């Protein structure tokens, strides 16, 4: 064992002997110059040995840090029987408990630490010096998890220069393909951390690397998808071939699609599915099909995105295109380049007319290109628009994935209902409207088959409060009625389920939640048979009784919310009414003492003041009465449907008008007083007067809009939708 690997005890002993020799040399220093030279040499040796001992100590300390936890146990399973790990000191003594094999491995790993540190830092000069002295370290397992220096370098996302230099020292392709104990090659490590440059260098050195699977059957492409490395996954997809055993078939292929869907790489998943459509019928290791995985991701679909008003406008305007499949491309190409038979049969069309058609088509193409170019420029300038574009692209990709997979299931020999039932009801619970529609169009009779809890499509839609899915009942007659008549194990019909409370995070305020619950109950009431309205379940409860019991707490919360809001607004309305009433009798500029006529009566600014003051008084009084009506309401369930929201809407609107009118009256009053002295004061007064009005609008206007749309807006249940074609 060299000095770098010597135990600490031996080093301390050597240090002690050297110290005693040094004392002897100091005693006889004056007698001989040769002895002085020997003393100097010994001091140099002492310093070097102390430095080596210190380095060994640090290396061992660092290695012990690596060995903590289960890493050493996995390497040496017998240690688990011999040691009862309970703290840092016991972890440090694992080497002693592990016996000679563990101790020998520990010393080896200690000697590898300089190379390990050089690899994680990307220090090629240090690594080169070490490898020149010990070339065998190039393929040695330098970590407790059996990683080579190449695997360490690529897994730390080091500069490509370091990896390239390492590969230059490896003449054999087998060295590059060396795997760890779990079967991962250097390319697997690069895929896991997203080191695309290193992956390119590795594949260039050994083109077979993308096909090598680890102990779990995963290729580097699988690892890149699993760990969310999109750029690396795209590259590996281009270099991974369909050689037997193919990574694009069977359970392994389904696992790849699952990883891509979970990582939100829907474009890559769509490209693979087009090349290997049979993957839609496969299941991964968890017995989940790609459709099952997709049905569990509501945010990947348009129905799961909750965009603001302006975001929705941009969403509908922004152009988004995804790659079509070959058949669609060829069809589009045929339409553009070659006229169809039907167009040529129209012999009445002259050559001039066809020429005009071509000119029109050319201008249409140019217009589309200009439109796309404009949006690309806007996206680069406004990051938010880029996010909306990416969201719309994702929505189109996921919908196309669903269409491709359902079409493949329909054309296969699989039991369509059995295969689609699980993702169908998962999507129903998640509220993925477009997913549900595609499956119904593929397999219309699937709604006849309930889920494992004996719930049908419409029962789940009611339970989870998904309006668009429930609205499909208006497009289906016999099948829908059959599904609506289903009862669960407690004999609850559809109206009983509508009476159950469903907490909602999308609606603000308990009062609005109560209103939405009433809207649901009344809508479902229209769809069930009259006899079902009084039917009792296993607990001897009618739907109305269930609704009252389930919503008692929400009614109480709604009452508190309404009273708190009304009390605050009543205070503001009272103050405004008091101020503007007093202002009517203390007009700006004063009155004629003889007749009581205001001095500035004939000025237009005074007319503005008078009108604004009157409007503020009338609107604040109206607002005050509305909020008093809310405070004195009896707060029954039915009051939350129309009465209370209507009063709140009128109260908030009139309060807003009174605040705006009061500020106009105040600005006009100041202008009348100061116009002869400070003419420039009109502009800042107008700007400052807008501030409180703007603040009120920003704070309360969203609530007002939400209440108004919920009460008087378009029905949340879309009766006229024509999504179902089957």
> Termini separation (Å)?
81 Å
* Count of distinct structural domains: 4
- Mean pLDDT score: 79
CATH hierarchy class name of the largest domain: Mainly Alpha
Describe the sheet with the most strands.
Answer: none
Shape: extended
Total DSSP helices: 34
What percentage of amino acids are in beta strands? under 5%
Low-confidence stretches: 1-32, 67-97, 324-350
In CATH, the homologous superfamily of the largest domain goes by the name: Ankyrin repeat-containing domain
What is CATH's topology name of the largest domain? Serine Threonine Protein Phosphatase 5, Tetratricopeptide repeat
Helix content: 55-70%
Per-chain topology:
Layout: H1 8-27, H2 33-67, H3 71-75, H4 79-82, H5 88-92, H6 94-121, H7 124-133, H8 149-155, H9 160-168, H10 173-176, H11 186-193, H12 196-205, H13 220-226, H14 230-239, H15 250-262, H16 266-275, H17 290-295, H18 309-317, H19 326-337, H20 341-345, H21 351-381, H22 383-411, H23 416-430, H24 433-442, H25 457-463, H26 467-470, H27 478-484, H28 494-499, H29 510-527, H30 543-550, H31 552-583, H32 604-631, H33 643-674, H34 682-712
Helix pairs in contact: 1-2, 2-6, 6-7, 6-8, 8-9, 8-11, 9-12, 11-12, 11-13, 12-14, 13-14, 13-15, 15-16, 16-22, 21-22, 22-24, 23-24, 29-31, 31-32, 31-33, 32-33, 33-34
Keywords: ANK repeat, Membrane, Transmembrane, Transmembrane helix
Pfam families: Ank_2 (PF12796), PGG (PF13962)
Organism: Liquidambar formosana (Formosan gum)
């Amino acid at each position: 064992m060299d000095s770098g690997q010597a135990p600490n005890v031996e080093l301390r002993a050597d240090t002690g002997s050297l110290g005693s020799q040094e004392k002897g040399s100091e005693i006889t220093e004056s007698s001989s110059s040769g002895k002085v030279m020997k003393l100097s040499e010994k001091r140099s040796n002492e310093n070097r040995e102390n430095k080596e001992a210190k380095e060994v100590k640090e290396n061992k300390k660092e290695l012990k840090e690596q060995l903590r936890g289960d890493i050493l146990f996995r390497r040496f399973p017998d240690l688990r029987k011999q040691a009862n790990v309970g703290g840092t000191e016991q972890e440090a003594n694992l080497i002693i408990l592990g016996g000679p094999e563990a101790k020998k491995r520990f010393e080896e790993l200690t000697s590898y630490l300089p190379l390990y540190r050089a690899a994680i830092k990307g220090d090629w000069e240090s690594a080169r010096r070490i490898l020149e002295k010990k070339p065998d370290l190039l393929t040695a397992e330098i970590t407790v998890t059996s990683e080579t220096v190449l695997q360490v370098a690529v897994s730390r996302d080091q500069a490509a220069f370091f990896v390239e230099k390492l590969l230059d020292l490896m003449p054999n392709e087998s060295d590059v393909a060396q795997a760890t104990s779990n079967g991962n090659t250097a390319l697997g490590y690069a895929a896991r951390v997203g080191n695309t440059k290193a992956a390119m260098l590795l594949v260039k050195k050994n083109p077979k690397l993308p096909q090598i699977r680890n102990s779990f059957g995963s290729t580097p492409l699988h690892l890149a998808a699993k760990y969310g490395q999109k750029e690396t996954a795209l590259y590996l997809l281009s270099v991974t071939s369909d050689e037997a055993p193919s990574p694009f078939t069977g359970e392994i292929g389904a696992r790849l699609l699952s990883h891509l869907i979970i990582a939100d790489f829907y474009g890559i998943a769509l490209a693979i599915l087009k090349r290997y459509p049979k993957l839609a019928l496969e299941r991964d290791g968890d017995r989940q099909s790609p459709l099952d995985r997709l049905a569990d991701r509501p945010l990947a679909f348009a129905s799961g995105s909750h965009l603001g008003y302006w975001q929705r406008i941009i969403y509908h305007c922004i152009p988004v295109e995804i790659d079509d499949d070959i058949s669609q491309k060829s069809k589009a190409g045929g339409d553009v380049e070659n006229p169809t038979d039907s167009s040529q049969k129209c012999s009445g069309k002259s050559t001039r007319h066809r020429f005009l058609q071509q000119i029109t088509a050319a201008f249409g193409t140019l217009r589309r290109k200009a439109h796309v170019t404009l949006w690309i420029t806007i996206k680069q300038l406004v990051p938010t628009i880029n996010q909306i574009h990416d969201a719309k692209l994702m929505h189109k990709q996921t919908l196309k994935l669903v269409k491709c997979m359902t079409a493949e299931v329909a054309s296969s020999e699989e039991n369509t209902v059995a295969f689609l039932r699980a993702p169908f009801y998962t999507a129903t619970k998640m509220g993925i409207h477009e997913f549900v529609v595609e499956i119904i169009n593929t397999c219309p009779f699937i709604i006849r088959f309930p889920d494992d809890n004996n719930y049908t499509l419409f029962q789940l839609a009611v339970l989870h409060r998904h309006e668009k899915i429930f609205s499909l009942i208006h497009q289906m007659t016999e099948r829908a009625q059959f599904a609506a008549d289903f009862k669960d194990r407690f004999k609850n019909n559809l109206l009983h389920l509508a009476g159950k409370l469903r907490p909602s995070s999308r609606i603000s305020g308990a009062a609005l939640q109560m209103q939405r619950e009433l809207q649901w109950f009344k809508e479902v009431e229209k769809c069930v048979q009259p006899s079902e309205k009084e039917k009792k379940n296993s607990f001897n409860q009618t739907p109305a009784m269930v609704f009252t019991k389930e919503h008692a707490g929400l009614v109480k919360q709604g009452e508190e919310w309404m009273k708190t809001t009304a009390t605050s607004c009543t205070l503001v309305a009272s103050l405004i009414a008091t101020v503007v009433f007093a202002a009517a009798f203390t007009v700006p500029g004063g009155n004629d003492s003889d007749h009581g006529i205001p001095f500035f009566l004939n000025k237009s600014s005074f007319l503005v003041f008078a009108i604004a003051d009157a409007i503020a008084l009338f609107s604040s009084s109206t607002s005050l009465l509305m909020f008093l009506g809310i405070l004195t309401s009896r707060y029954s369930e039915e009051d939350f449907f129309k009465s209370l929201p209507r009063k709140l809407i009128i109260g908030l609107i009139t309060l807003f008008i009174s605040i705006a009118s009061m500020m106009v009256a105040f600005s006009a009053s100041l202008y009348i007083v100061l116009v002869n002295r400070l003419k420039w004061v009109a502009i800042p007064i107008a700007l400052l007067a807008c501030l409180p009005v703007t603040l009120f609008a920003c704070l309360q206007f969203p609530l007002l809009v939400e209440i108004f749309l919920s009460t008087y807006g378009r029905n949340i249940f879309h009766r006229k939708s024509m999504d179902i074609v089957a």
